Amino acid sequence: MDDMHLVELLENEINKIRAARAAKPGKRMWREIEALRDKRQLERELMEMDACLDISDIQQI
To answer: Which Pfam families match (predicted)?
Structure first.
């Protein structure tokens, strides 16, 4: 009986670790996507403000 309980506890811990590992890359990916969207939006807004603005100037900053 104790062996079965130990096996169940170990399986639960392994599943928790796997779930935590699987969740991190997804969150990181969405953060990167949001950062790219924010950058594009900023570029659009800056272009609207100054039509003569060179995007390469922004990328150097």
So the answer is: DUF3545 (PF12065)
47: CB partners within 8 A, 6+ apart: 53, 55
Taking the model in full, what pTM does it have? 0.44
Query: Would you state the structure tokens that stand for residue 12, as one six-digit string?
Result: 């639960």
Sequence-distant (≥ 6) Cβ neighbours of residue 42 within 8 angstroms: 58
Beta strands, E only, 1-61 = none
∠ CA 57-58-61, rounded to 5° = 95
